[in-house]
Batch of 2 targets.
Target 1
Amino acid sequence: MPENVSSPPTALVRRFEKIYSDTYYKLYGFVKHYVWDEDAIKDVLQECYVRLWQNMEKVQDDEKILPLLRTYAMHITIDVVRKTAKELKRAGIYHSRQSQPATADEGLHIQEAMRLYKEAVNALPPRQKMVFELVREKGLTYREISDQLNISTHTLKRHMNEALHTLRSRFPPEMLTMVWLFMSLHMH
């Protein structure tokens, strides 16, 4: 190792490793709600932990790390979606210049996507719809919903998984991600 470069203190490395092991699977689950490509999920997670490492000395309360990591993840995911949207737009411009017809997905705007999304959510069975809206739109935890509706968290997870399966079968992943990100940015 060069003389001018010092290695990080062992305590800092141990602290980071503990935070990593305590938060990885929770953060993975959070990111998986917005990004379905496994490689993209790993890229987002890696960038989150790189940012955390760069700010480790500033972070004081390890109990509040997961919300910080989720914030990092949301910003990184938004950046990825924006970059993908720009690439799709460029590809659309290229295709239009080549006199090739644009696909239906390329022509959808956010308002149309939101309208279709709302229709799909409204078409869910009543219990699935209620659980889905409480989790996605109200941001409640399974435990909070379980207490509120007096049903098991296992049943809630089943309803949520069925609702997600239905929505994923009706929409391209990029469209769902765009809608969910738009909604999360505009939630109170």
Target 2
Amino acid sequence: MQGVNALLRRVPVWAVYLLGALPAPYLFYLGLTGGLGVEPIEVLEHEYGELALQLLILGLAVTPLRRHIGLNLLRFRRAIGLLTFFYVTCHLLVWLVLDVQILGQIWADILKRPYITVGMAGFLLLLPLALTSNNWSVRRLGPGWRKLHRATYMAAVLGALHFVMLVKGFQIEPLIYLGLVGLLLLLRAPVRRLRTA
């Protein structure tokens, strides 16, 4: 794993931002040109949301990967987190601007549809995390910064639940995402060392 980590240290962080953001305009282009089928808005909304959830899970995996197999992705964690928020925002904007469009209907959907309520709660949890993902905030908040960013755990649970609740009928894919979130949260739990007598 040392060789892989040495190679990763040579990857510039800006390249992660660039490559991570590229699917967004490409998917939007496909939607405009008919490449997303007969329901392009629905597909675009789903694709952005799924990318956000995948990145959220990847962000949760950074610590377990380092702890259990020695893969060090720590220098990319901020980029992963901000890309997560970027795709959550894209997902939300497609729903707001292209799907619902009517302000009164948006508020009604948030209140009446549980999966939307859960999704919006996850977005609101991620918002302060994105706003404080900078060096100034880390210095300013001190130890409170780490506590604040533990909200990522709940946001991941809410994101996975949002996916499970919105699908029709029994589908395995959302349950896999929910299971991965649960597993990663267990793996991130602090290891308690047994005291020897």
